[in-house]
Amino acid sequence: MTRGDGRLSHDLMPGENSPQDACGVFGVWAPGEDVAKLTYFGLYALQHRGQESAGIATSDGESILIYKDMGLVSQVFDESSLSSLRGHLAIGHNRYSTTGGSTWENAQPTLGGSEERTVALAHNGNLINTAELRDLVDEQHAGRKIGGEIGRGNTSDTALVTALLSDQPERSLEDVALEVLPKLRGAFCFVFMNEQTLYAARDPQGVRPLALGRLERGWVVASETAALQTIGASVVREIEPGELIAIDENGLRSHKFAEAKPKGCVFEYVYLARPDAVIRGRVVHEARVEMGRQLAREHPVEADLVIGVPESGVPAATGYAQEAGIPFGQGFVKNAYVGRTFIQPSQTLRQLGIRLKLNPLEHAIRGRRIVVIDDSIVRGNTQRAQIRMLREAGATEIHVRISSPPVKWPCFYGIDFATRAELVANGLDTEAIRASIGADSLGYISEDGMIASTDQPASELCSACFTGDYPIALPEDGRIGKHLLETLPIELRTGHDASIEHTPADRGEVDGRRDADGVNVGVAGGGSGALLHP
């Protein structure tokens, strides 16, 4: 679906923006294997982590080729494009934008370097010292115009890291990475490469997951263990927080660039990761089922049927039903092919109640008291629509249970929630939210209950979106946000001398170019710039 503001969405209700997934990264070093297709299938397994753009970079030991575009993995690549990506090492990326808008220029992997060395990089997470890193890049160029992807209009934190890694070509990339990585603050799982070597790195807090796998003839890294298993790799271990690994013809090398201070994202267990992923020894599906059991203990109710909102609410619904002794059933039918549509329903169609994503299963609902399990409430629009549909289908009572606490704070570590002002739990208490969405009762799992379900120590999890307690301190000067680099003055953004007169194209006035959120990104578009695409 397309939101009224132009932003792509496949939510049930226009205008409702559920927590958007973190990105997915994949890397493989495997001489003799078709690494482009391995990466394609790895990204396919990680498609849930980002649906805005996809890209793959490969190297044959001499040069790096990159193919990337806006859209899903299956839309971006075909047999022809994959066959052109030859080599023995590759990295890939699925993007959901968290710094830098959803534009072609910001698609990954990013590319940087010189004749001496080329660097391609893919990033899952979000850095919180982007402005500081921009200043470092400006210092490197000492007033000279910045080229590469930044010069072409890339406004992501990933492009800044690529530029920093590409500097000092007389030194090894490994040495430069060990110097750059400690300067980064925030959440990052990187896979990057030069012509000969695959690298992977994870931030000291290990906010986002990253796993290492083994092929018969090589090594693989991926955001989730499920992607390793999809391509037939065995899971070896997780990349440790604060670890950099390098893989080449000499084998695998590991470096610790920072002390590990684990703060894994608890929302990976609630919603983000695939149910078959394993994070820190805990199968995500088992964690979600246990969250449902805990919900039933904390918020019991007399009812005839427990249903889950597909897909992420279903495991918790089975747990709730088991613990409560209430039958579990299917209450919604999901359109498995809804994906992302670029066709926006007209207002008339919306008033007719067009339902692209879910329909109630009326024969299972009519005349019954229903418990509906969902993973979170953001604005409340989706739950309001679901409850209306269930009442129209004949439900006599509707009791909503949520397998996470109220979301009250935005995430700056790689999840794009609504703004704090838009989060319904900020302005209303539980009873007011219940009345707003039209439920007969509403219950959220407690923070302690959610954390206990993960089998992880509370001290090693980040739950800032529920508590406002950010484990990685946010910049005091307030220079943070998705569109930070796009809204800075152009001379600061590009390193130009402020005294130089800028053309309308420099100021982004040629075609009013805006990203999918409607933010002017200051980049001239159109066919005249096609050859500038890397």
From TrEMBL:
Q: What is its EC number?
A: 2.4.2.14
Ranges for the Glutamine amidotransferase type-2 domain?
A: 23-250
Q: Which region ranges are annotated with the description Disordered? A: 495-534
Compositionally biased region (Basic and acidic residues): 495-517
Record keywords, A-Z: 4Fe-4S, Glutamine amidotransferase, Glycosyltransferase, Iron, Iron-sulfur, Magnesium, Metal-binding, Purine biosynthesis, Transferase
Which pathway does it take part in?
A: Purine metabolism; IMP biosynthesis via de novo pathway; N(1)-(5-phospho-D-ribosyl)glycinamide from 5-phospho-alpha-D-ribose 1-diphosphate: step 1/2
Give the required cofactors: Mg(2+); [4Fe-4S] cluster
Function text: Catalyzes the formation of phosphoribosylamine from phosphoribosylpyrophosphate (PRPP) and glutamine.
The name this protein goes by in its record: Amidophosphoribosyltransferase
Q: Please tell me the species this chain comes from.
A: Allobranchiibius huperziae
Lineage runs: Bacteria, Bacillati, Actinomycetota, Actinomycetes, Micrococcales
